[in-house]
Specification:
This protein is mostly beta strands and 381 residues long. Strand 22 and strand 23 form a beta hairpin.
């Protein structure tokens, strides 16, 4: 082995043209680099600088051990070309949670290629041509297809439950094939399609509650079809039910069609007991007040109505708002002391008092009967 080492120096151009003896060292004074010669190659071989500014890897690096890259410059590590990982190889950070790329895996939801160190079943995987999948816990959660469709999966990661159809611009919830702009499907019994809870008021509203026996109902402000629960119900057959509770008693208005008679009607109920209804067909409209014997007791003949009829003051007047003249009518305040059942409201309230003239009809009938009896008596005499 030779014991003598010869060192030369020169500018970049001098070094490039010089062919030194084997093992001879040349210092480049232009860029402060060192070259080692082999006895046949002009310029020799430049040694790498510590800052890495004058070297590059041009051939494959094959190793069964880790390749650690220590502190690098602010520009990081730049690779001009591919980084090919052999089966089982990984490119990763040093700490748990750092992003890593692995090879030799199934590249699906159970073993995604792009993961986090220490969490090998959570990350991103290749789902086919121009398709990306996102997985957590080894189960697929999101799939983005080449056409822009986006699918979100249920807890098992097997069935998409929310789908964005990008070409049709449709969103499906509970269905993988939305047919409208917003398609809500597959709702399980007991679920509400839309629900909003308000902790401030303690109330909630629901739309489209679906449960056993309630399928197809649209509910607003209530969670069942119960007549004792306030809110609104729109039924499959076109039935509409409104339930209110102003005084602790449930009042209902039901818009329905009687299949047996073919008439359409609005039922008015109190505690789910019919109190009256408006009914119409293609030829007539009737206004009905409940008068069923089963709802009455202490039934007796009415007293003579003559004194009451004489006491009713029939007036003529002009309406203040419209100026319209009304030739026959009553004043609610005057009628209240004679037939209070025909008057609603109070003079002390801001709500205007009203008169239901139909309730005066039985009193008029009673008086007509009395007059007929008197006429009959006079005729008999």
């Amino acid at each position: 082995m030779a014991t003598q080492v010869q060192i030369r120096r020169g500018t970049s151009s001098q070094v490039a043209a010089f062919t030194g003896a084997e093992g001879e060292i040349v210092v480049n004074t232009t860029n402060d680099s060192v070259h080692v010669n082999d006895g046949s190659t002009a310029g020799g071989f430049e040694l790498a600088r510590v800052d890495g500014s004058n070297w590059a890897i041009t051939n494959d690096i094959t190793t069964t051990s880790n390749i650690d890259v220590g502190t690098v410059t602010a520009d990081g590590l730049t690779v001009d070309g591919d980084i090919n990982l052999a089966s089982g190889g990984r490119a990763r950070g040093a700490a748990g949670g750092d992003f890593q790329v692995s090879s030799g895996l199934t590249n699906d939801a159970s073993e995604p290629t792009y993961t986090f160190r220490g969490d090998p079943d959570t990350g991103i995987f290749y789902g086919g041509a121009n398709t990306v999948g996102i997985t957590t816990g080894g189960k697929q959660r999101i799939n983005i297809a080449s056409n822009g469709d986006v699918s979100l999966y249920e807890d098992t990661g097997t069935t998409p439950k929310m789908v964005w159809d990008s070409s049709a611009e449709r969103l499906g919830i509970g269905t993988s094939s939305p047919s409208t702009k917003l398609h809500l499907g597959g709702t399980a019994p007991g679920d509400s399609i839309i629900r909003q809870d308000s902790t401030a008021s303690g109330t909630n509203w629901e739309i489209g509650e679906r449960s056993a026996g309630n399928s197809g109902n649209l509910l607003v402000g209530k969670t069942s079809t119960s007549a004792s629960e306030t809110g609104h119900r729109f039924g499959q057959s076109g039935t509409y039910v409104a339930v209110t509770n102003f005084t602790g008693t449930n009042e209902q208005a039901i818009f329905n069609q009687d299949a047996s008679t073919g008439t359409t009607q609005i039922d008015f109920r109190n505690e789910n007991v019919a109190r009256g209804f408006i009914e119409w067909t293609n030829t007539a409209t009737t206004y009905n007040t409940t008068s069923d014997r089963r709802m009455k007791e202490n039934i007796q003949d009415a007293d003579d109505a003559g004194s009451n009829i004489d006491a009713i003051q029939v007036r003529k007047f002009d309406w203040i708002e419209s100026g319209e003249h009304h030739p026959y009518g009553t004043i609610a305040q005057e009628l209240q002391s004679i037939a209070s059942y025909a008057v609603t409201g109070s003079e002390d309230s801001e709500k205007m008092m009203a008169v239901d003239y139909s309730t005066l009809v039985p009193m008029l009938i009673k008086e007509i009967q009395s007059l007929r009896a008197r006429v009959q008596q006079l005729e008999n005499n």
